Amino acid sequence: MARPQQELQHIAKQAGHSQPLIIALDQENGGVNSLFDEDYVCQFPSQMGVAATGRSELAYEVAKATATQLSACGINLVLGPVLDVLSNARDQPLGVRSVSDDPQEVSQYCVQAVNGIRDAGVACAGKHFPTYGSLDFPGSGLEMPVITQTLEQLSLSALVPFRDTIASGSLDGVFVGGVRMSNPSMQGQHACLSDQVVDDLLRSELGFKGVAISECLEMEALSHELGVQNGVVMAVEAGCDVVLLCRSYAVQLEAIKGMKLGIENGILTKERLFTSLKRVLRLKSKCTSWAKALNPPGISLLSKLHPKYLTLSQHTYDASITVVRDKENLLPLSASLRQDEELLLLTPLIKPLPASALTRSILDKKKQHAAITTNHDKWHHPDRGTAILSGEEVFRELGRSLARARHGKLLHTSYTANGVRPVHENLINRASTVIIVTADANRNLYQAGFAKHVAMICSMLRSRGQKKHIIAVAVSSPYDFALDKSIGTYICSFDYTENAMRALVRVLCGDTPPRGTLPGTMRRSRKSVKSKQFWLVEEYSRSRDAESLDALIRNVSLATSPSYPYLAASSASSFELGNPNMIEGHFVVRNSSTGALYGFAATYRLGTLGILGAIFVDPAKRNISIGKSLHRRAMRSLMQSGTVKMVQLGSVFPAIFLGIPVADDEGSTNSARDWFAHSGWDVQFPRRLTNLEIPSLNSWSAPEGLLQSIQRANMSFDLIHGLENADTVLAHVAAHANPEVVELYREALAKSCGVVRAKGAGDGLLGTVVICREGSPLARYIPPLAPRHGGVVVGGILAPVVPPSVQAVLTLQGLALMGVRQIKSYKKATTVVLSWTLEDMLEPLRAMGFETLQAFEEITNSPENWADLA
Fold this sequence. Notes:
The protein is an alpha/beta fold.
């Protein structure tokens, strides 16, 4: 992939250049990528998409990954990041290329991005100085856009990210825009041709010492007014060190001729040219060398990095998808739409993005270019607009993906400025849910009008008793319906590349929770609304709260059955371990007048592990921030200890909640995961834990041949009791399981439970499991072990710890077999529960006759997610 750049560098070397060429590229991610290859170069979200994750560290990781890929291809200068502040976010063409409308947030994310690019060994040039974020477009496409802010206003907003990134010392270049300034003293001057902008404002006032790069002087608005020759001389005289002329070789020759005329006319001096030369050479020494330029690693490195960057890409896209509102609880679609009901997808006809396999296929096959339709597009680079295309290729794969993901019916057609046609009305009548996609509806007003018309039709049909839901999806600017709440469910994806559309489908169908938020002032305003109501959280007091907690548990149990059928078997005492190795901290939200508990959270600290063992709220008091208040206090108590290096959601001891309960009702499951995701947990990579049971011991028998297989493997088993015999067992568990599992084993041995050990031919320990007879004291902490109605007596096999080996499956089955035999020998037991089973253990145990009782998703995260609570 690096061959063209490599050849250019060889030519430069042979021509006697003292340093390699600077090879620059627009690579902003999202919709503006000059380099894209679905097999080797990963696509990442736009800058606003990254900001929507709410995690500035992702800006660093994404920028570093992007620059590393470019470096592998022989690119040594990135024209980015975009430092513009969207002063009028709804009307500016930059849209998602910018971080947001908040100067401080733009600075935060862009400083991280600049550092990421530099740490990849690539130079970067922030753009577009002084701003493209507050432009007014005149009537003619040949007139230059005008910055609407005064210099004083720019200093307080648009210049903040430039000032901060320059101060960081990592910004190598600044891209100076081709726009007019509205200040009277600068009327008629283009920014990149003005010494007041480049030399005075950028260099003298902001202290920038790097390379200043002009906007492309082939822009129609600039070249028609001044001509390329005059433009080049003016740019250099203004202080630009690099002048862009991007498309035509003939125009580049014209520019060189203009430079010569500038010197001959005495306008440009040698001193001025050598100043720029020194800056460019200094830049080259930072970002390239002949060894690096002549031997870029290319595909060999890209292939190695691709899996890692694909994971980062998916993680960032998934975290960026933003559900702005969902008033009717339509998401996920599985919760509001049956498989036999039809889903209608309505999409506009728009130009595919450069960072798209579709763009390449269209250009290769059809060699077609879209017609430019607006002044924005005439001013912009041709591949950055939103011009109209004939055809539905852009969103065709989105429709296919939706149909596959929901295993149901999907109708899909496009719409144009012609409005709602009979074909649309017919399809709306058939569908139960309509998804309308918009792309920059504030600039393409027909899209907003179409969406409102469809919403009106759906409202009319609902009034007649038909099921008609509507969802709006903005795939570019998030401001399409951010403030217009006429459509109750509104989602933003921040670009419409294939990766973004796949992430959108995962959120629509409930495969991943929506975790994004609208960047900038919209995020602040939503946070301020949410943070207005907080409940007082107090530490749990046994003497004061135990009886009320029992009542709360009963209420929650009745509301969650059958999703979590055994919560009723627990009590207030189930959460109080009294274990000297575990520091407990339990919290309640209570009515101080009546003593009733509205919510409860249990935390445990074990060395460097912090555990949120339970959190639940009275069903009659949900959705009024009680859970959020409890969660915040619980996490703060863990963070403020100063010792926690890992936080875990769910605990095996006590085993009230092994994690997020996985209910039979998928809607309930996703709802719980979504709640924790919105509370700061990264729920993408859970560990599935399952409680299994043999319902009837009387009718159960060991699988044929299992005992013989164990004997042939020279495997032996023994049963130990008491802590005095536990050293090797506890060491084994500590090496292969979480710390709270060690405490479960320690507690079991101290309370007269047994541990079955599996040994190999050399007497080495292959695995262990805890055995509890009916009525065991451990049943207090493990609800499935409690006696049940109808004379059901339960014995327990707890926490099998079997490390990976060639004999792991046989060891696991042997331990289960010995456990069942031991429990059967107690005579009274009629049912066996096997608690805390890892996902890779399920099939061998099911083959023995165990059935699923309850599944959970245990989550572990870094405490950095709640660093603000420390």
